[in-house]
Amino acid sequence: MADHGGGYEGCGVIKKKATVTLEDGTVFAGVRIMPGDVVRFERHFGVRIESVSGNELMEHALFLGWSPLNRKGMTPLTFDEFCDVVESVDISADGEASPTDPVPSEDDSSS
To answer: Taking a C-beta distance cutoff of 8 angstroms, is the pair 89, 18 a contact?
Structure first.
């Protein structure tokens, strides 16, 4: 039986988020990695995500940061273009605090 708890194991429902920082300082925090993003990952790399969990290449983390942004129309960049402008990608379990500074809201700019 598949594990539907929260990891990648057994093709269960994943509960992961990405925080992506671009070289221009743009931060996308708490972007949910959905099952469709995992399917795109597996198709792109030709491996099950479980087989790389804990052994991820930089390219794997970048893809998991790019895919949800691409899916949501938050970046027009191809994956290779994205790799050229990304500074960091942090993948965390849904609900974990991300080790990044808070992103200022538009309201903060008027103070």
So the answer is: yes
Residue spans of the domains in the chain: they are 9-92
Distance CA(78)–CA(66), nearest Å, equals 9
Q: What angle do CA 97, 103, 109 make, to 5 degrees?
A: 155
CA atoms of 90 and 64, how far apart (whole Å) = 10
pTM above the 0.85 mark?
Answer: no
Could you read off the pLDDT of 3-61 as tens digits, one per residue?
333 444 444 556 899 999 999 999 999 999 999 999 999 999 999 988 877 777 899 99
39 residue type, one letter: V
